[in-house]
Design goal:
D-Maltodextrin-Binding Protein, domain 2; 8 helices
């Protein structure tokens, strides 16, 4: 098969909610997996139409696969894109799914420490650094991959930067949301080289997706 005729490779976030919503939108655009993703341990799936193949992965890996051309397109949260900070792709479409807020959160009754940097636990290291630099606050970033909410409780950090959906988990761990850093929804990103080589196919898919979400 000629390179120009190979299926478009689409990288999808494996998170339950964003994956389900992404697959629903793609189905409305005529792209459905040839077999059930939910019942398989495979990571790469052909599509029934033959125009695309779907690759399931950790959300934080989607921008990397697209940036380096291993995938032509990808679906990732805006928070993930801000943290990744890549330049090898274009952000082309807001799918308006998987909404959440990237926020700072502090213990209830929190008082700012004096005479030392604020200790901030987060997996969003780049975003946290830029946020506190913008407001002129000296911080010490403590990278964590999960369980951010217990960092202040255990004395590891003063506060956290994390995704907030309902705030229930924060409340259960004695925290409250404070500063809004960014609103996040799932976005379609496109590899720069792929867009040049396969402009017609990609623009047609984006137009169909745009129609599916009523944009």
């Amino acid at each position: 098969m000629a390179a120009s005729r190979r299926p478009l490779t689409i990288a999808l976030n494996r998170g339950d909610r964003i994956l389900s919503d992404s697959l629903s939108l793609l189905a409305r655009a005529g792209i459905e997996p040839a077999e059930s993703i939910e019942r398989s341990r495979k990571l790469v799936f052909d599509s029934r139409c033959g125009r695309a193949r779907l690759v399931i992965m950790r959300g934080s890996d989607v921008p990397t696969f697209v940036e380096y051309g291993a995938a032509d397109l990808g679906v990732a949260g805006k928070d993930t894109l801000l943290e990744h900070g890549g330049t090898g792709y274009y952000e082309r479409l807001d799918l308006k799914i998987a909404p959440c807020r990237l926020m700072t959160a502090v213990p209830v009754g929190f008082r700012e420490p004096h005479g030392r940097p604020l200790r901030v636990a987060t997996k969003f290291v780049r975003i946290a650094r830029e946020h506190y630099a913008d407001i002129g606050r000296a911080v010490e970033i403590i990278p964590l991959s999960g369980a951010m909410e217990i960092a202040p409780l255990m004395g590891l950090a003063d506060c956290i930067v994390d995704i907030v959906e309902t705030g229930t988990t924060l409340k259960a761990n004695g925290l409250e949301a404070r500063e809004l850093i960014a609103e996040s929804t799932a976005r379609v990103i496109v590899n720069r080289a792929s867009l040049k080589v396969r402009l017609g196919e990609i623009e047609a898919l984006l137009a169909t997706l745009r129609s599916a979400i009523g944009d």
